[in-house]
Amino acid sequence: MIRLFVGLGLPETLRETLSMMERGIPGARWIDADNYHVTLRFIGEVAEDRAEDIDSALGAVQAPPFALSLAGVGHFGKLRKARSVWAAVEANEALDRLQARIESAIVRAGHAPEERRFKPHVTLARIKGETGHHLANFLSEHGDFRAPPFEVDNFRLYESRLTRHGAVYRSLRSYVLA
Fold first, then answer.
1. pTM assigned to the model
2. Coil, helix or strand for 160?
3. Local structure of 166: helix, strand or coil
4. d(Cα 145, Cα 148) in Å, to the nearest integer?
5. Distance between CA 4 and CA 20 in Å, rounded?
6. Catalytic one of 75, 111, 121, 142
7. Residue 119 carries which DSSP code?
8. What is the pLDDT of residues 111-149, one digit of tens each?
9. Would you tell me the crossing angle of helices 48-59 and 93-108 to the nearest 10 degrees?
């Protein structure tokens, strides 16, 4: 079995910028900058032969390159018991169309449709326990975060290996947008 997801990698300069926010929330497990990405579709555990079907379906996805921007920060969960902190992806029709095409490809490859609404973001930290006022301070301090746009010219199929120190991601294949 292999654990898979589809995502967008980020440029090194943007990963460095995001990593400079890694402070101010006690107990947060900050994501390694090399693992920053925008998830387009989490697939989960699949058999190796099913991974080949997914790869084939994703290879048929066609979309043009586009520019993407990050702006703002947010969290999942209640403020005092948040599960994660993230940088927001600005609304982008080209990203939404690409994600919809990827979703269709995954469904054609035999997987159930995603039930959750697509909310593009870059996870910065995972949190366990209460954050007290620290998360509110973090959100206030970084609320005006804005990064310059970057060109999205590919998407990737990733393997996610769970370790006791968190997930480790490895790009298995890149699909060019043209």
1. 0.95
2. strand
3. strand
4. 10
5. 28
6. 121
7. -
8. 999 999 999 999 999 998 888 899 999 999 999 999 999
9. 140
Q: Per residue, what are the HEC states of 27-75? A: CEEECCHHHCEEEEEEEEEECHHHHHHHHHHHHCCCCCCEEECEEEEEE
Give me the domain span that covers residue 76.
2-176
Distance separating the N- and C-terminal Cα atoms of the chain: 32
User: DSSP character for 146?
Assistant: B
CATH code for position 172 = 3.90.1140.10
Instruction: Write the CB contacts of 39 (distance below 8 Å, at least 6 apart in sequence).
Output: 5, 6, 7, 120
3-state secondary structure of 133: coil
Tokens of 29: 């497990």
Catalytic status, residue 37: yes
Report pLDDT digits (tens) over 150-170. 999 999 999 999 888 788 999
CB 139 within 8 A of CB 159: no
pLDDT value at 19 more than 90? yes
In whole numbers, what is the pLDDT of the chain averaged over residues? Answer: 96
Counting the structural domains of the chain, the total is 1
Alpha-carbon span 106 to 56, nearest angstrom: 10
Tell me which DSSP letter residue 109 carries.
T
Q: Which two tokens stand for residue 58?
A: 């994703």
Annotated active-site residue in 37, 75, 111, 142: 37
